[in-house]
Amino acid sequence: MFERLRTWFQKQSQTTRAIVAMMLGQPVWTPKNYANFAKEGYQNNVYVYACVRQIAMAVAGIPWLVYKKGRGGKVQELDEHPLIDILKQPNPWQGGSRFFENLTAFLMLSGNSYIETVGPQSGVPRELYVLRPDRMKVVPGNAQQMVGGYQYTVGGVVVSFKPEEILHLKTFSPLDDWYGMSPIEAAARSIDQNNESRAWNVALLQNSARPPGALVTENELQEEQYNRLKEQIKEQYSGAQNAGRPLLLEGGLDWKEMGLSPADMHWIEGLKLSAREIAIAFGVPPELIGDTANKTYSNYKEARQAFYTETVLPLIDWIKDELNNWLVPKFGNEKIYIDYDRDEIEALQEDREAVWKRAMEAVKNGVLTPNEARVLLGYDEVPGANTLMVPGNMMPLATISGEDVTEE
């Protein structure tokens, strides 16, 4: 066994050593495309903005709870604990909802998000802060500890952090050992197509909603005539306020169309397709960001449930595990952990009601005991509730857990 462990450790060390050696102990710069992602994506594209906001606000609305493990595997929800306080208000300037909104938005935009803990070096954290990912650099460590620290740069001032002072959340990236991959990177071409389509439409409207064309004449125009004609078109016929104004031609001038119509370019369909591709990259159903093609009340409810089940809850589970591994041990109690209350998520209430109904029917029909139904609903067992409630027209069933089954 010792030999197998030694061999495994050597493989780990050699792999990590190779990755760290590539950087020669120098800080690894954050990918410089973050500014483009934030500007061209979030600030200039309504669908990226809607997707990021949908995910960030959904995560921000999740209620966090603190539990303590007791004897016999029993779990108790705590009403008071320093961990509860710091989750409700991580720092003097932010509440818990705004904190997790910023954390999630940075993660969606850059593929990376950083949490700084503030407090005594060996004591309980007093404050938590979300740091901008474009200002953070990872400092490689060694074969035993891959990350040696972090550097945060603001206005030329560099602040160094120890590895344990920063929680680095990063999405999977197939080509980067240090930083995560943003969903915007996967949807970049669709975002560019969508932005260019809108820019083209704006330019079209500014030019009287007509495709480009040319003024043709058999006569040669003098420079003065050319400049006067150019200024006249610019002042009297360009812009939305001049839409529909007839073009007055003189001196043998003729207008020749040279562009394609919006129908020929399938402009509207192109916009819809790129919007759906952006939504797919973020894991947001198109119905939630304004796609009205298949939007009905029923479809919207199902899309919202699918959004929480397939996108929000897996993301929350990941954040929960990372906080339990990084933040909870700082409070010095191995028996506590944080979780979230799924029952309080409004979009999943209908599913919860269906589970309740099935559990109650199962108890009523003698399929489940009350305690089995309680476990199914997420509650602890109670004494004396291991007896099946058999309908009156049925024979008594077998004994369960040493208790006789009686008709009720």
Overview of this protein structure:
This protein has helices spanning 2-23, 34-43, 46-60, 82-88, 96-110, 183-186, 188-206, 223-236, 267-282, 297-326, 349-364, 370-376; strands at residues 64-69, 75-77, 112-118, 127-131, 136-140, 147-154, 157-161, 166-170, 213-216, 254-257, 336-340. By secondary structure, it is of the alpha+beta class. Among the domains are: 17-183, no CATH class; 345-408, no CATH class. It is flat, with a radius of gyration of 31 Å. It contains twelve helices and eleven strands. 43% of the residues lie in helices and 14% in strands. It has a three-stranded antiparallel beta sheet. The longest helix has 30 residues, at 297-326. Helix 3 packs across helix 5 and helix 3 (46-60) runs parallel beside helix 9 (267-282).
List keywords for this structure.
single chain, 408 residues, alpha+beta, 3-stranded antiparallel beta sheet, 12 helices, 11 strands
Write down how many β-strands occur, each being a DSSP E stretch of 2 or more residues: 11
Number of helices: 12
Mean pLDDT across the residues is 76
**N- to C-terminal distance:** 58 Å
| Order of H and E elements | HHHEEHHEEEEEEHHEHEHHEHH
From the helix content, strand content and strand pairing, which structural class follows?
alpha+beta
Low-confidence stretches: 5-13, 15-25, 398-408
**Strand composition percent:** 5-15%
Main beta sheet strand tally, sense and closure:
3 strands, antiparallel
Widest beta sheet: strand line-up: 2-1-11
Overall body shape? flat
Could you estimate the helical fraction of the residues in percent? 40-55%
Radius of gyration: 31 Å
